[in-house]
Design goal:
5% strand, RNA polymerase II transcription regulatory region sequence-specific DNA binding, mainly alpha, two-stranded antiparallel sheet, flat
């Protein structure tokens, strides 16, 4: 029979809760003893029941284990405190270094703008001039690139417009040809019906005479 999954929440029934506590307490103490024997470790386990009853297991004297725990916790706390202080000190140094770099950048920026250059040496001025020339070349190259890209876009747009214009002309020429052909057919139809009407309106006199033809004056 498959056991159902136990929900991890407080057992409301007092009897069931006490039975579960007794079973699991015994199992936990047994597992602690096995761990101490198999792995040769110092182990201390303390359990207080709901009614305040103490259950414990230790490989040596429980008081010695507790004192050892407190010493280790104190050392760990001091270690953590030292690590925090060292980390804080590193952050302070990094902040100070970053502030110096920002200050140097601000000074360099003002010099590039032509400000606060009275204290600059001839070599520093030449260096600033060289950097400005490099910046100008880069700016001009980028500007030229943008112009070329814009020209290419305009050329592509022009080609597209020419193609559309050619298609419209072809459609217009085709329409004009159809119109001429239609007008020509209409004229042919009118001419045909005109001829037919004239032939119908022409009277032809015919007669039958017996004997010699008479001379009509």
């Amino acid at each position: 029979m498959v056991r159902g999954k136990i929900q991890m929440k407080r057992i409301e029934n007092a009897t069931s809760r006490q039975v579960t506590f007794s079973k699991r307490r015994s199992g936990l103490l047994k597992k602690a003893q096995e761990l101490a024997v198999l792995c040769d470790v110092q182990l201390g386990l303390i359990i207080f029941s709901q009614k305040g009853r103490l259950y414990e297991f230790s490989t040596t004297d429980m008081q010695n284990i507790i004192e050892r725990y407190h010493k280790h916790a104190k050392i760990q706390e001091q270690t953590n405190k030292m690590e925090v202080e060292q980390h804080t000190q590193r952050l302070k140094l990094e902040t100070a270094d970053m502030a110096k770099k920002i200050e140097l950048l601000e000074v360099s920026k003002r010099k590039f703008l032509g400000q606060d250059i009275s204290s600059c040496s001839h070599e520093e001025l030449l260096n600033i001039e060289h950097r400005l020339e490099q910046s100008l070349r880069s700016i001009r190259a980028r500007k030229e690139q943008l112009f070329q890209e814009q020209i290419e876009k305009l050329k592509a747009k022009e080609r597209l417009l020419l193609q559309e214009n050619m298609q419209l002309r072809e459609k217009n020429t085709s329409g004009e040809n159809l119109l001429r052909e239609s007008m020509f057919r209409e004229k042919e139809v009118v001419r045909y019906w005109s001829k037919s009407s004239n032939s119908t309106n022409t009277e032809v006199e015919t007669g039958l005479f017996i004997g010699l033809p008479e001379i009509r004056c």
